Amino acid sequence: MVRRRDELQGLLGPLETEVMETVWDQGDTTVREVHAALGETRDLAYTTVMTTMARLASKGLLERDTSGLAHRYRPAISRDEYARTTVTSVVDWLVERFPEPALSYFVEKMDADGEADTADLRSRVERLRQQEG
């Protein structure tokens, strides 16, 4: 997935999220199958689902197989990979644009849980760095 640092464009809209959740659940699927699954809870036009899936493919989130009569789609990344990439992108964006409020929030959040002081926070950051390296 392409990381976009200038804007928060990497986030999916509500329909894109529903479509991705359905494709992650179904694996290899067609527009018709996704439309049928979504149609159990909402009234959507087939062409709306088709357009959404084509856009998700152009964003690199779905792979499209056009070799058969019906185009088949499968996830290009896992649910966990998407979540990790999205969280990283959002946190990077916040820290780059609003460093003090973003970091203050993280410290306050940890303090609210009764788990952190500055030394503890530094220790956690160091452990994460070691795990990545």
From TrEMBL:
Organism: Egibacter rhizosphaerae
Example GO biological process: negative regulation of DNA-templated transcription
Similarity field: Belongs to the BlaI transcriptional regulatory family.
GO molecular function terms attached to this record: DNA binding
Protein name as annotated: BlaI/MecI/CopY family transcriptional regulator
A Pfam short name: Penicillinase_R
InterPro entries: BlaI_family, WH-like_DNA-bd_sf, WH_DNA-bd_sf
Highest taxon in the source lineage: Bacteria
Keyword Ubl conjugation: no
Residues spanning the signal sequence: none
Keywords assigned: DNA-binding, Transcription, Transcription regulation
Record flagged with keyword Plastid: no
